[in-house]
Design a protein that fits this description.
alpha/beta; four-stranded mixed β-sheet; 24% strand; globular; binds ligand EPZ
Length: 445
């Protein structure tokens, strides 16, 4: 396995215009794993996770937890994908800038560390390619639980003897916050008394976290709904948990099948968490079929039926908090709508600036007109292969999909963004008929 530093200048060379056929199996969820791993900071017991994806963000979180006094053993490079986390020392409680700047999700260590140790020092996350990402709601929620929080040399310093339960409205200008809910919910498990979080995030990743915390001995009700109630307990123990499949990875490959007019099967697919995407695909004339009786299971076998679709119909889509259409699939769906027969409208309500992929798609012949948080997509018959630049995780996936559907060769540069959130993307796609080579950028420029 090549070290993270070595892949920094990698590019994908994609031969487009090929049908995909066969099965892609979905890995464990990145966005579920990160708060689950941080949850280990709440206990002295051992947390055993399975189906943890082998991703750069996961390896960064391992590095962070080790810096915060944890022993982490894992075999995420083997099919079992198992990980064991156990706090050895509660002394080192500083999440340094060098780690936090590689991964904003480091912030989800704040609540668990503060609740268990009464002290936490975490570098304040900086700017992000997808837009403004403040953490004011995280801090507001923890302050309402009684924490004293101040900024010192770019670090958030939080202290509290013992947190106290409170009723907290956690909604912001763009609605609920996922990691903010994870932080406050985790902290409230060890607070004295009852906490009610109103306008909590309803994402499946929050339900996953609540399931682990309850298995550790917490008392959480209502996870997955806008009102979560947590009755604080004195201490939490160890537990085991199998990570849910990655709904954003699954959604990405469902769109890949649709826009390459392929009949593609997605295994271990959390389709029940993707009904908003299924609705948009249906709107475009693309059917999604679940193998008998697997629809409501967390791990369905799903076939996207793209082969018979002569022309994709245009649709409107607006991103929203779950169960609305996920912002993390906006770019990928836009690349598909570039090929629809007519005018689509894409509105980004979570990160209004999340459009760095627009200019790159335009280099491939897409006709896109942006007005603030909305992009009007005039469908074209064909995208044309070109050298393009990846800017963030989901924009990179969007460009790979565009390259799969395009005529000719597409070079996607800086695919290290992809390695943060997609496990073995080129192997998975090549196994179903794509033609992608990972090369050093020097070879294509
Ligand atoms: C999570 O980020 C995901 N990351 C993101 O996925 C995802 O885009 C996002 O949720 C929204 O679905 C992980 O789970 C690791 P938020 P998070 O707090 O929790 C505003 C990917 O591609 N806000 O729900 O950081 C914020 O600016 C990543 O895998 C405040 O105003 O997102 C945004 O507009 C990218 N104040 C909105 O709320 C706050 O304190 C939603 O953000 C917090 C957030």
């Amino acid at each position: 396995m090549r070290r993270d530093l070595e892949v920094l200048m990698d590019s994908f060379v994609i031969e487009g215009g090929r049908d995909l056929h066969g099965t892609i199996t979905i890995s464990g969820s990145k966005n579920a794993s990160l708060p689950l791993m941080a949850g280990a900071l709440l206990t002295d017991g051992e947390i055993a996770l399975s189906d943890v994806p082998n991703l750069r963000d996961i390896r960064n979180m391992i590095g962070l937890l080790e810096e915060l006094g944890c022993a982490v053993s894992h075999d995420i490079e083997s099919p079992a994908r198992q990980m064991k986390i156990c706090v050895q020392s509660t002394k080192p409680s500083h999440a340094r800038y060098e780690i936090v700047r590689t991964m904003r999700a480091s912030i989800c260590a704040l609540g668990p560390m503060l609740a268990r140790r009464g002290y936490a020092r975490i570098s304040m996350p900086g700017g992000c390619a997808i837009g403004d990402r403040p953490i004011d709601l995280h801090l507001r929620g923890l302050r309402e639980l009684g924490a004293d929080i101040h900024l010192d040399a770019g670090d958030i310093v939080a202290t509290a003897k013992r947190l106290a339960g409170a009723t907290i409205f956690l909604g912001g200008p763009f609605g609920s916050t996922v990691l903010g809910t994870a932080n406050v919910m985790s902290a409230a498990t060890l607070a004295h008394g009852v906490t009610v979080i109103e306008c909590a995030a309803c994402e499946p990743e929050i339900v996953e976290l609540a399931n682990l915390l309850n298995a550790m001995g917490a008392n959480i009700r209502g996870a997955g709904t806008p009102r979560v109630t947590i009755e604080g307990v004195k201490e939490l123990g160890g537990a085991e948990h199998r990570v849910m499949p990655d709904r954003i990875e699954a959604g990405t490959y469902l769109i890949a099948g649709a826009m390459t007019h392929s009949d593609l099967t997605i295994g271990n697919c959390p389709i029940d968490c993707l009904l908003s995407l299924e609705d948009r695909l249906k709107g475009c004339g693309v059917g999604v079929h679940c193998e008998n009786g697997t629809r409501t299971t967390e791990r369905a076998t799903v076939e996207v039926k793209g082969a018979d679709v002569r022309a994709l119909r245009p649709v409107q889509v607006t991103t929203q908090p779950y169960p609305g259409f996920p912002t993390d699939l906006q770019a990928q769906l836009m690349s598909m709508l570039c090929l629809a027969d007519g005018i689509s409208v894409v509105t980004e309500k979570i990160y209004p600036e999340r459009f760095l992929h627009v200019a790159e798609l335009s280099r491939m012949g897409a006709r896109l007109y942006r007005q603030g948080p909305t992009v009007v997509v005039h469908g074209v018959k064909q995208l044309i292969g070109a050298p393009v630049m990846a800017s963030d995780l989901r924009a990179s996936a969007c460009l790979v999909l565009a390259g799969l559907a395009a005529e000719g060769t597409t070079n996607v540069n800086r695919v290290y963004h992809l390695d943060r959130g997609y496990e073995n993307m080129e192997e998975k796609l090549n196994a179903v008929g794509a033609k992608i080579r990972r090369v050093d950028e020097g070879e294509v420029s």
